[in-house]
Design a protein that fits this description.
Layout lengths: L1 E6 L8 H14 L3 E9 L1 H12 L7 E9 L2 E9 H11 L3 H16 L7 H17 L8
């Protein structure tokens, strides 16, 4: 398992060791091995990526780029916008790190094939997020 973590923002200090632990837990739960890149970026960068790859000209919370998915293997990139997480955490009266880690797990689940477009699928995905994050002491509101 390879997990590369790149921090390209300065709004909040990212705990790389904690990110690795959580990503490993999600992959273990799903019985997958992986080669992943997780980037923490600012609003300008996520907006640029969102526009270029998804045709949406606004900053978003997290974008996943699956490169390869096989039965027990996943390869891809997750890009987390830390300033968006900080704004949402303030709005929801949550801890910033809880929200950032939620975006990490959410992005990884997308790489693993989970989807949150339909309500039924979103419920399954959110339940998995909450299960994983609660094991590490993180709280997830609204799920």
């Amino acid at each position: 398992m390879k997990i590369a973590i790149i921090n390209l923002q300065q709004a909040y200090p990212v705990k790389k060791s904690r990110v690795r632990e959580i990503v490993r837990e999600v992959l273990k739960q799903e019985d997958k091995d992986a080669e992943l890149s997780i980037a923490f970026v600012d609003e300008d960068e996520i907006r640029r990526l969102n526009k270029r790859f998804l045709g949406k000209d606004f900053p978003t919370d997290v974008i996943s780029f699956p490169l390869e998915t096989k039965r027990r293997w996943v390869e891809g990139e997750v890009v987390v916008c830390v300033p968006v997480a900080l704004k949402e955490a303030t709005k929801m009266r949550m801890d910033a790190e809880d929200e950032i880690m939620l975006y990490v797990v959410h992005g990884i689940l997308h790489l693993l094939g989970y989807n949150d477009i339909r309500k039924k699928d979103a419920r399954v995905m959110h339940l998995l997020e909450k299960e994983v994050l609660s094991r590490f002491g993180y709280k997830v509101k609204g799920l």
